[in-house]
Structures are given as C-alpha cells and as structure tokens.
Model the fold of this input.
Amino acid sequence: MVRLVTHNLLACHAKDCNTNNFPLVFQNVQLEIREAEFNSDFIRNFLPKIEWNALVKTAYELGDTSLPQDQPEMVDDEFLKNLHHVLFEIHIIEGGMVCPNCKHNYPISDGIPNMLLAEHEIA
Amino acid sequence: MAPKAVAEVVVDLDPEAYETQNVHAIYDKIASHFSSTRYKPWPIVTKFLSELPDGWIGLDSGTGNGKYLPLDRQGKIWMIGLDRSINLLKNAQQAGGKAREVILGNALHHCWRGHAFDYAISIATIHHLANPQRRMLAVQCLLRAVSPKHGRILIYVWAIEQDELSKRIIPQGECKEVGSGKDVIVPWVLSKETSPQGTNSPEGEEKQVYGRYYHMFAKGELGRLVTEAATGLNLIIGAADGQVPSSEGVEIVQDSWERSNYYVELRRWSIP
Done:
C-alpha cells in the first residue's frame, strides 16, 4: 500500500532531475481508508523527520484538511490522531505519482508504486 | 532433501539484461513457492532490528517476500520494503497478516529524498548483482539512503564458505583472483503442484528447474566493497572518535560470517 508515510520519503530519480523533484503529486488516485493501530510514541519520534510542507500539501490535495499549515509547537492528542490518520490510514490503491519537475509518472497498481526507470533514464 | 548442485557461470551479457533474465524473471516465476519456504528470520537481523531506537524508519532493500517487515516491534519502528520482483512484493504486501508498505524498485536506484531513512537492511540482495561495480553502487545507495548523522546499515550476502548444514554443493576450485568470489547459478526446483499455471513441460515432467544468478562472496570481499563504496562518497572509514570537525564517515561495527553468509553492520557519523 502507498500511504503518506511512504510518499513523504519518495522522490523522482530520473536523470538530471535533482531539483523540485519532491514531493511527487498524486494523480487519478483511488483511495481507501483503513483503520490502523494508533501508536503515539512512534508518531512523536517520527514527527521531526517528516517533511511537513510536503505532507500537508499532499493531504490537502487528497481532500484531508485536518493538519495545520505549520507544525504546531504544542503537540496534543487531537493533533497526533489527525497526523496518525493522514500518515497511516489513507491508502492509495490505484493511480500515479507525477514528478513536479520532469513530469515523469510513477504508476500505482494494487497499492504498489512502480518506481522503476530504465537504465538510460537514470542519472 | 538432496543437496542441490550449484554451477559456476560466466556473466556473458550486459549485466542489467543478465539480472533481468537470471534474477528478476526467475523470482517472478518462483515467488509463491519461494515465499512459502522463506519465513524464518535470521537471528542477527532480528537482533539488529531489536536494538534500533523507537520511532526509526527504515528501508528493507530487496525485501523479497517481506519476511523482515513484521519485525517492526509492534509498530515501534517502521520499515518500507523495496524489491525488483512484483510477485514477491504481492506476498510482502501482506507479510505477517498486516498491510505493509512496499515499492517496486531497484536496489541500484535511489528513489528517495536524500538520507530519508534512519536505517537500512539489505539481506541476501547484493549477491544478485552481476558485477563488482553494480554491487558497489548498491552499497552506495544504502549509504545515501540513511541519515549521515546516525544511519545504521546491515548487509548480508552469500558466502563461498558454506557451513556443513548447507544443502548445497558448491563447485570446488580456486577463484580467478584472490578474494574475488565466484559467480554461480543456483537451481530452484518447482514441483508440479507449485508451478505456476502453464509452465509445466508438455511431456508432463514432474519438475521445473529455474536457475538464479548469485555472486558468492569470498572472505574479506564484502568489507572491501563497503570501503570502496564509502571512499567513493568521500566518507572516512572508521570510528567517529578523534576525527576532525566537519568530517563525515562510516564505521564498520561488525564484519563477520554466519551460517554460510557474510555480513557487515555499518554506522554513519558526522562531526559538525
């Protein structure tokens, strides 16, 4: 499954595509919401490693507006629950991820993103 | 089970095409049978994962059927599986009966934002790459994937030196160069029941044999590969203690052999 936790780590790796190659933009997606076990310790520790702007922008594009534009200084339970939902409960099943720079489309099928490029497409 | 004979081989094609033919295509064919035999995690991998701090996120590069993905300590750590075989990933996607994050990708390609992970494991993967340069690039991909400050890496590869419990028969004879390892084809036997539909021979033979390419590592070869990879990224090899300011490096914490495999554990460090 592609969830936003994974999407927050992926970047385009096509040849000469080194700037503005993150975050990939979801396109024509089919979503499924599936409950996942809430683990507040993990989320607290993971929080500083998130590329926040990319996460919020992507969540908005998928129709989830529960996260604040700026990462809050005070982390409360409601915030952690919203973050949990955005990171772990939105599953992208079909569609694609498009590089904002070179426009390469990485397809997603049955919840598995295809990040393969031919050798000549690689930097 | 009778021991399986391993045959020496010469990589006679472009290495990428060779891997496509002799690794990726084979795993896609044997995926479901292979998965049913690969469920027992190796203790050193389990130990490595058990010692990571809570909240760490990692890459399992060459996850196969995802047998290490459930070792996430009930969600205290997170792991994303990458593999080149779509059919293995279909197993990995549900490893341990839970939805897992998996990516169809190549261990040689860096499809991540830089240093996105806290840790990475590469278990029984790099030995499927068909020349020394590609194996070195795969190690560099791991070094680039993890945090330059605290990233930890565990790499496992198949060894020429097999233990006595191994079911395989290894061709004897000297390696062409000292410490250069050996290129081999390892058979995988699919019985009729486990063959994918339509792959049985018309004669109705009981078994289909598929050969997978491996590079069997010689003693010392993995450590040298890591050193070469790190040097190519301008990293200092050794401990962080006593290094000068604004330096970056990687320490080889363990370099050892266990049960027919060589493994190394690496830790990245940087001094501001």
